[in-house]
C-alpha cells in the first residue's frame, strides 16, 4: 500500500511540474499534453532556429557548389568511368547526350517536381528572397524580362524564375518563365539536365527564338542583361548596371513582337563582398581577357563561413533580396527594325528601369539620394 501511495505521489509531482511549464494543461487525455507543447513559442525549442539556419545555408551552398563545380566534376567522372568496369554506363549516357544535344535549344525539359523541391524554400528563406508583382502580364503575349543587377551568382534570378519558391506561377498565372544563362553550361554532362529541369535555357539566338516564336504565347525569357561584365562591378552598396550599349535584347524583342519588362533586385549586390580593381589596372585587364575566353568573369569575392558568420567562406551573406517586376513595355513586331527604332525602345526601357528603381529604393534600405548608374 505504501508503494502505491508513493507512486501516486510521484505522478502528482510530475503533473504539477508539467502544469507549471505548460499552463494550458488540463485534466484529460495525453493528447492535451502534446497539443500544449506544440503550442509553445519557438523559443521553447532552443535548437530549432539554429538547425533551420544551417539547413538554409546548406541549401544555398549546394547551389553555389553546383554552379562552380558540378559540370567539371561530372565531365571528369564520365571520362574516368570509361576506364573502369562501369564503361557501359558511361557509353549509354554519352549516346543519350549526343541524341539529346539540341534539347536545350528547343525549350528544354522543365520539371514541376524539381522546381517545387523543399530545398528551394530553405534557399529562399536564407536571405530571404521575395518576388513583388507590380502589373499583370497577359498570357496572350510573350515577354523578355531584363534582370538587373547580375550580382555574383544571380541568386534572386534563380530563386524567382528557376524555382517556384516565391510563387511565380501563382503571381503570374499563364506565364512560363525561362531563365537564360551561359550556353556553355549546357555542354557539360548532368549539369545541363539539372539546369533544364528548372526551366533554365541557353542565352543564345536559337534557344530564345524557339521560346518566343515556336512555343506559343505566355512565355517569359529572363535575360541578365549586364552579364559577366556587370558582375565585376557588384559590391554591397553599389547600384550600377551595364546597359548603355546593351541593345541586343531590345532588337530581339522588336523582331519577335515580345513586350519588354524591366526587373530590378534590391540586395542582389549585397550577397558577397568583392575586391573591385580599377579600370586599366593589371588585374582588371586579366579579368577582362579571361571573361572573353571563358564567357564569365572570374571575381575575387568572399562571403561567410558555413558555421561561423564572422569567418570568410563562399556562403553568401544573409541579406534580403527583393525582386520587383515592373510594368511591361508594349513592343510591336518589326522583322528588321531600324537603329533609330531600337534606340527609341532602348531609351524607353532605361527610363522605365530608372522609374522602377526610384519608386521602390527607399522601401528596401536605400536613401532618397541614391541613384541608379547606367554604364
UniProtKB/TrEMBL annotation:
MF GO annotations: diacylglycerol O-acyltransferase activity; retinol O-fatty-acyltransferase activity
Q: Does the keyword Iron apply?
A: no
What EC identifiers does the entry list?
2.3.1.-
Q: Which InterPro entries match?
A: DAGAT
Highest taxon of source: Eukaryota
Query: Where in the cell is the protein located?
Result: Cytoplasm, Perinuclear region; Endoplasmic reticulum membrane; Lipid droplet
Alphabetically sorted, this entry's keywords are: Acyltransferase, Cytoplasm, Endoplasmic reticulum, Glycerol metabolism, Lipid biosynthesis, Lipid droplet, Lipid metabolism, Membrane, Transferase, Transmembrane, Transmembrane helix
Q: What is the membrane topology noted in the UniProt record heading this document?
A: Multi-pass membrane protein
Query: Which Pfam family, any one, appears in the UniProt record?
Result: DAGAT
The record lists the membrane-crossing segments as: 60-81
> What EC class is this?
transferase
Q: Name one GO cellular component term.
A: endoplasmic reticulum membrane
Pathway annotation from the record: Glycerolipid metabolism; triacylglycerol biosynthesis; Lipid metabolism
A Gene Ontology biological process term: triglyceride biosynthetic process
Q: Does the keyword Zinc-finger apply?
A: no
Q: Which reaction does it catalyse?
A: 1,2-di-(9Z-octadecenoyl)-sn-glycerol + hexadecanoyl-CoA = 1,2-di-(9Z)-octadecenoyl-3-hexadecanoyl-sn-glycerol + CoA; 1-O-(9Z-octadecenyl)-glycerol + (9Z)-octadecenoyl-CoA = 1-O-(9Z-octadecyl)-3-(9Z-octadecenoyl)-glycerol + CoA; all-trans-retinol + hexadecanoyl-CoA = all-trans-retinyl hexadecanoate + CoA; 1,3-di-(9Z-octadecenoyl)-glycerol + (9Z)-octadecenoyl-CoA = 1,2,3-tri-(9Z-octadecenoyl)-glycerol + CoA
Q: Which family does it belong to?
A: Belongs to the diacylglycerol acyltransferase family.
Q: What is this protein called?
A: Acyltransferase
Q: To which species is this protein native?
A: Mola mola (Ocean sunfish)
Q: What is the lineage of its organism?
A: Eukaryota, Metazoa, Chordata, Craniata, Vertebrata
